[in-house]
Amino acid sequence: MSTEQEHIISALGSVPTIDPATEIERRVAFLVAYARSVPGVRGFVLGISGGQDSSLAGRIGQLAAERLRAEGSDARFVAVRLPYREQHDEDDARLALEFIAPDESMTVAIGAAVDEITDAVSAGSGERVTDFTKGNVKARMRMVAQYTVAGDRGLLVIGTDHAAEAVTGFYTKHGDGAADVLPLSGLTKGQGAAMLAHLGAPDRLWTKIPTADLLDDDPGQSDEQSLGVSYTEIDAYLQGNAVDSAVAENLERRYTATEHKRRMPVTPDDTWWMGEKEVR
Ligand SMILES: Nc1ncnc2c1ncn2[C@@H]1O[C@H](COP(=O)(O)OP(=O)(O)OC[C@H]2O[C@@H]([n+]3cccc(C(=O)O)c3)[C@H](O)[C@@H]2O)[C@@H](O)[C@H]1O
Ligand SMILES: Nc1ncnc2c1ncn2[C@@H]1O[C@H](COP(=O)(O)OP(=O)(O)OP(=O)(O)O)[C@@H](O)[C@H]1O
Ligand SMILES: [Mg+2]
């Protein structure tokens, strides 16, 4: 294994193999302990898309809320459907909600808000907002909706970031990348699928092709299509296995280019961005 691969694996906290039951318990216990430590917190909120990551993080959030209630707190897990117009895989979102069995679910339509802000920026700048950037606005609007629910109800926002996403920075900065707690941190995509299977989720939720579902022009575009590398390859890299050199180069280039997303905003005192010149 190269030192770069070793460094990335260690920075993201990936391990080659997991025991799904142990990892589920560890992550539920983390949410419970963290919520207990914050005075006034009354549970969790998460957007549910119908994809693998929010199905897993949602079920873990629900289990944590139930455990907190068993201890006498009034904690709840709130699931939020956040469609931009009509969602092409609406059936999967319903299936995910059925599996998660949240204490409460609600739907917040983000279409009008996304169109309003992109139209206003277009009018102000005189340039059309690209479909790519509008996709990131959708992810950021979902963040705004979740924090609005969290603010009024005293909830923590769950994020779905995990190692197979963090390594490429394949999320929107301050969009789906913004959250209070990250129960899936360090996991590969395959480990997440194994945990969902262990939780008894319908196969569809963990065999489904992952999609960001952000583009008007290509709503179901798969993550693998966008990245030019498969999750099987990403997972292999994170598990310390040998991968094709083109795959390693792709991942390491993306990891370096997206370092800013895994950090706090850069200040004059920061040196991490100076690469090898970094002062320790
Ligand atoms: N070196 C640097 N230091 C500090 N800040 C830097 C920077 N480079 C860019 N930036 C800032 O970051 C911004 C770009 O980051 P960002 O806005 O995130 O945009 P960007 O990384 O260009 O795009 C997000 C990518 O994540 C994918 N995504 C998003 C959401 C969900 C999912 C999913 O799988 O569900 C996937 C999406 O399809 C797209 O490929 C720039 O506009 C700039 O403000
Ligand atoms: N239509 C949506 N409704 C509600 N939340 C959404 C929607 N689309 C995205 N999100 C939120 O943004 C997060 C990031 O999306 P991402 O595609 O990475 O995860 P996913 O859809 O749960 O799983 P997968 O990666 O397998 O598609 C989701 O986990 C979810 O919390
Ligand atoms: Mg998705």
TrEMBL record:
<feature type="binding site">
    <location>
        <position position="180"/>
    </location>
    <ligand>
        <name>deamido-NAD(+)</name>
    </ligand>
</feature>
<dbReference type="GO" id="GO:0008795">
    <property type="term" value="F:NAD+ synthase activity"/>
</dbReference>
<feature type="binding site" description="in other chain">
    <location>
        <position position="140"/>
    </location>
    <ligand>
        <name>deamido-NAD(+)</name>
    </ligand>
</feature>
<feature type="binding site">
    <location>
        <position position="211"/>
    </location>
    <ligand>
        <name>ATP</name>
    </ligand>
</feature>
<feature type="binding site">
    <location>
        <position position="53"/>
    </location>
    <ligand>
        <name>Mg(2+)</name>
    </ligand>
</feature>
<comment type="function">
    <text>Catalyzes the ATP-dependent amidation of deamido-NAD to form NAD. Uses ammonia as a nitrogen source.</text>
</comment>
<dbReference type="GO" id="GO:0009435">
    <property type="term" value="P:NAD+ biosynthetic process"/>
</dbReference>
<dbReference type="Pfam" id="PF02540">
    <property type="entry name" value="NAD_synthase"/>
</dbReference>
<dbReference type="GO" id="GO:0004359">
    <property type="term" value="F:glutaminase activity"/>
</dbReference>
<comment type="similarity">
    <text>Belongs to the NAD synthetase family.</text>
</comment>
<comment type="subunit">
    <text>Homodimer.</text>
</comment>
<dbReference type="GO" id="GO:0005737">
    <property type="term" value="C:cytoplasm"/>
</dbReference>
<dbReference type="InterPro" id="IPR022310">
    <property type="entry name" value="NAD/GMP_synthase"/>
</dbReference>
<dbReference type="InterPro" id="IPR022926">
    <property type="entry name" value="NH(3)-dep_NAD(+)_synth"/>
</dbReference>
<keyword id="KW-0460">Magnesium</keyword>
<feature type="binding site">
    <location>
        <position position="160"/>
    </location>
    <ligand>
        <name>ATP</name>
    </ligand>
</feature>
<feature type="binding site">
    <location>
        <begin position="47"/>
        <end position="54"/>
    </location>
    <ligand>
        <name>ATP</name>
    </ligand>
</feature>
<feature type="binding site">
    <location>
        <position position="189"/>
    </location>
    <ligand>
        <name>ATP</name>
    </ligand>
</feature>
<keyword id="KW-0479">Metal-binding</keyword>
<feature type="binding site" description="in other chain">
    <location>
        <position position="173"/>
    </location>
    <ligand>
        <name>deamido-NAD(+)</name>
    </ligand>
</feature>
<dbReference type="InterPro" id="IPR014729">
    <property type="entry name" value="Rossmann-like_a/b/a_fold"/>
</dbReference>
<feature type="binding site" description="in other chain">
    <location>
        <begin position="260"/>
        <end position="261"/>
    </location>
    <ligand>
        <name>deamido-NAD(+)</name>
    </ligand>
</feature>
<comment type="pathway">
    <text>Cofactor biosynthesis; NAD(+) biosynthesis; NAD(+) from deamido-NAD(+) (ammonia route): step 1/1.</text>
</comment>
<keyword id="KW-0547">Nucleotide-binding</keyword>
<dbReference type="GO" id="GO:0003952">
    <property type="term" value="F:NAD+ synthase (glutamine-hydrolyzing) activity"/>
</dbReference>
<dbReference type="GO" id="GO:0046872">
    <property type="term" value="F:metal ion binding"/>
</dbReference>
<protein>
    <recommendedName>
        <fullName>NH(3)-dependent NAD(+) synthetase</fullName>
        <ecNumber>6.3.1.5</ecNumber>
    </recommendedName>
</protein>
<feature type="domain" description="NAD/GMP synthase">
    <location>
        <begin position="24"/>
        <end position="265"/>
    </location>
</feature>
<keyword id="KW-0067">ATP-binding</keyword>
<feature type="binding site">
    <location>
        <position position="165"/>
    </location>
    <ligand>
        <name>Mg(2+)</name>
    </ligand>
</feature>
<keyword id="KW-0436">Ligase</keyword>
<dbReference type="GO" id="GO:0005524">
    <property type="term" value="F:ATP binding"/>
</dbReference>
<keyword id="KW-0520">NAD</keyword>
<dbReference type="InterPro" id="IPR003694">
    <property type="entry name" value="NAD_synthase"/>
</dbReference>
